[in-house]
Write a structure and sequence with these properties.
single chain, 18 helices, 79% helix, globular
Amino acid sequence: MSKSTIPIQFVTPVLMSFFVMSFCDLVGIGVDRIKIDFALNNTLAQLIPSAVFLWFFVLSVPVGILQDRIGKRNVLNIGMIITALGLFLPYVFYSFGIVLTGFVMLGVGNTIVQVSANPLLVDVVPSNRRSSYLSFSQFVKSIGSMIAAPLAGWFALQFGDWKLLFLMFGVVSMLTVVWLYFTKIEETKNTEKRATFASSFKLLRTGYISMMVAGIFLVVGIDVGINAFSGQLMLTKFSSAQTFAESGRSVYFFGKMLGTFGGAILLTRFSTGKCFLWSSVVGLASILALIFASTDSVAIFLIFIIGLGVANIFPVIYSLTVEKYPLRSNEISGLMIMAVCGGAVLPLLMGWISDMTGSTTTAMMVLVAAICYILFISILSVKTRNIQSSFKLRS
């Protein structure tokens, strides 16, 4: 879509699917509550996030291929229906086995939603507003991520059942399905060869695409790494109080929420490449500053700045890549959501380094290396405006 007007009747239900996308963040409150309810040890409790995030690696490319055949809107609705079923199941039948099955379905549904929602949003907004709306979509997602834990506590306090959160979010998912079903969207269609596994992975031979997919892998790794290690860093380096150390996660997500909202505005006034560059600079400076922070109060502030800085990197990378290869958006979306598995790999590497060295500060250097690479590709995206001529799409 190239016209400058914003078709609100199409944009709004698609943006609502990003709120549904946030439901995978229920794993946090889910681990805490379910561990207590079933007296689980840490190993069994950690099966819950594994049951969710495994599917990003397994299903992303197949889903990208499927939506090339039946359309993004149809696939998005399938994903939201599976998400809803995954939420209803543990509410109705509450046992650990059923809960785990429900979270598997939540992971499958969320993977599908993430693969299809981004390219569908690109289809319904003007081409000069894509980066802005992709950032705003992450703001919508952040709202859902932030309200889950307080809502669970409120339901537990008011009704004695925190699982009402599952019921409420499941109903929201189904209402969004109905809304999107009755919204007729004109999608960009692939006029070249149909997507296949071979054609999808062959795109990684294109230097620009593989570079950007690696960027997604690393920025998600940074996101989960800060979320996982900020508390441990403050406990070990500053001997902070437990509750204060844990507050770093909320501060980080608050920074991300403000960052995506601000990014949606800034990307209407400045080029995508420049916003990418400055986000990377702020990310690198704030991560380095966090490593050398002298007090826990300074560290909390820097964690907020990191969230603010890196908030728009994911949507900017996605926007820049799809902008160069719009007819391959289904395959690109599958590859990029597959790269979300970086959120499992980098924290694991950080944990290993921390155990080997006995230092969480040393482990943070993994994040420094990751943001340095992202800064490199941001500089390249600014300096090489016609970069497509250097990274030709191989047929």
